[in-house]
Amino acid sequence: MLITFLFYLCIPKFTLQIRWVVENANARIKQWKYLSYILPSSQIPFIGDYVRIVCSICNRYLKPLASGSVEEDQALGAKMLFLSKQVNQLKEQVEEQHLDRRTVCWREVSEVVGFPQLDEERLRELTCGSYQLRLSANYAQEHIEGGCTIHMHKEEEGLLRIRLQSRHISSKTYQLWIRYKDGDIVAWYCKCRAGARVVDMCAHTASIVWYLGYARHRCNTGRIGVRDWGEFLEDATAVDESEESDSSGDESPVEE
């Protein structure tokens, strides 16, 4: 029963891996003005011919939507099907040992030492794609600005607990766990709706893995995520008194 539940939990990920090609193809066709609107019924006899003509032009002159090899796609599909039947053992450990409520076994750390350093290829393997990685920068910015606390297990080496600020609800935080060993990420679990699956990671877990294993070693930590353009604005009501006094002193009396 648990395996069946986990399989259905992973179905959205399977659908996304296949559906994105279809949606991108539809978006490419709708770039043509005629096909981007609702057509009247009088155009039904001609729509099929127009779509075939547009698709032929796109296939001839535009880049293909999928550039991967058939062997790599088949290997990824087999991997996802295999992982969909596995049980999240870290989730079971958290629930059995009540690691979400116990505080005495954790210690807060400001710098994570020994976390594996990952490359982009390994990150894509862990997330089974790049969607979560594109969201990671925004979540990582919350980490830099103090919206994230990291705890390390006092007894079990390589087990982290992270509280991460929600990107959509300011009053909500997510609690997640990551286990690493022998220079690689071996398990993860987040208490969000999609955090228990093992086929890939949720965006919260992916952002922490991306930051600790990749971004902090390569990126300028001050410019991760959405840039705050407000720092370049000045308050018009705040007048510098020194400049005002200098300007008034430079004024010479007007001779009549």
Rg computed from alpha carbons, rounded to a whole number of angstroms: 26 Å
Count every helix, treating DSSP H or I runs of 4 or more residues as helices: 8
Mean model confidence by pLDDT: 79
Estimate what percentage of residues fall within beta strands.
5-15%
Straight-line distance between termini: 99 Å
H/E element order = HHHHEHHEEEEHH
Describe this structure in words.
It is a single chain. The protein is of the alpha+beta class and 256 residues long. The protein is 46% helix and 13% strand. A five-stranded antiparallel sheet has the order 1-2-3-4-5, with helices on both faces. Strand 3 and strand 4 (173-181) form a beta hairpin. It is extended and about 70 Å long. Residues 1-9 have low confidence and may be disordered.
Attribute tags:
256 residues; alpha+beta; 46% helix
Outline of the structure:
46% of the residues lie in helices and 13% in strands. With 256 residues, the protein is of the alpha+beta class. The protein has a five-stranded antiparallel β-sheet, with helices on both faces.
How do the strands and helices of this protein lay out in sequence?
Blueprint: H1 2-29, H2 44-61, H3 70-84, H4 89-97, E1 106-109, H5 120-127, H6 131-144, E2 148-153, E3 159-165, E4 173-181, E5 184-190, H7 203-218, H8 241-250
Antiparallel strand pairs: 1-2, 2-3, 3-4, 4-5
Helix pairs in contact: 5-7, 6-7
